[in-house]
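HUMAN: Can I see a protein plus its fold?

ASSISTANT:
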Amino acid sequence: MNTITKTFLILLLVLLSNTPISAQSLDTDLQQLVDDTAIPGMAVGIIKDKELVYEGYFGMANIQSQTPVSEETSFMLASVSKGFTHAAILISVDEGIIQSLNDPINDYLPFEVKHPANSNAVITIYDLMGHTSGIRDNWDEMPYLQSDDDCTPLGEYLENYLMPGGNIFDASLNYWSDGVGNNHYSNIGYALLGYIVEVANEMDFSVYIRQKILDPLCMNNSSFFIDDLDLSKIAMPYDGAGNPLGHFSYSDYPSGRLRASLRDMANYGIAIMGLGTMDSVALLSPNWGTLILANTAGGDQGVATSCSMDKDSGIGVIILVNYAYSDMPGIHGIIQTYIDDFIAESPDELTCHTITGTNDLTVSQFNFLPIPVVNKLTIEGSFNEAQVIIHNISGAIIWQGELPSSNELEIDYLQSGIYTLSLSENGLVKHHERFVKVR
């Protein structure tokens, strides 16, 4: 084969490829980085003009099972999770549930938090958001646990941590000696922000996040609770020697326990660029949307993450790694070399909404079954031979059949968790909702 023929074939292959040359080159450079370092797996995304213009998946989500990183792989986000907790506060203020960021936190808590160094100092919501509350991370009382079920409920944990007489309270270790108003990074402070959202909205924090952010943005591979996700699709954290660390949990979960896929995070990033709006989905008004954290980074056992959104340029970068990789700026540097080559076209529309008809159903987006468990789910409305299908969080059918004339479904057989109910009439889907069953 002569040089001219070889050159022609190379050009032909490039022209026939669906992947732009810039994407191929970035793939090559990032793959080389993965090969040259201890990174087991990585997902990288570039957002430009409110569109995901590049997504790259490298290495293994799980080395032992030989599961590659893919578009469905969920990574532990570590402190990138704080951006969602921050946004939840802003949404609560925007909706008038919380009156002001300057409100004292004790206006919303069922117990009173006073800083031991100055009991008269007022800790505000804004102090928690800006890490100036004087609340200190006492790592001896913030253990890593093997499962979510091993964790202490959020409110109970925080009361025991912050209140004199609590079984993990320590005035000198749980609070900074210089009092309120000085900058000290605080995971516990962000956990307390999540609990304020929970108390103010009378709704479990994780459910609030799903209802207000995850579901509207089609973040189907995201959750604060590992049982909500397909375990085989969650990236295993690894240490520097390539040893699996196992999936872990902790009680102060609003500070860092969210898991999400790259595509899910891209939707969230686009909403940040849109000042709280993606397509026609508005999480909150633009005035409050401007305050959503645009740049967050996280690091934990076997985890390194970054979500950087530049609202001025319209360019964003998301990096998810299942290893505590220290040279995240190096990855950003590689991406920056190619970022100008990507051109946004027209953003894809959100496609997770499956309602194709309307009726007079008044069931809310989430139906909360109180404690003790109510074993029946009542659907309001008038229907003619309606068919019902109940799916679990992974999409498997749990039950299907006709809606009884009483409009009551027996659900005592369901375990606690999140389910989807689809109701159709004459072949047309009339309702598609999620409900939560709790024990």
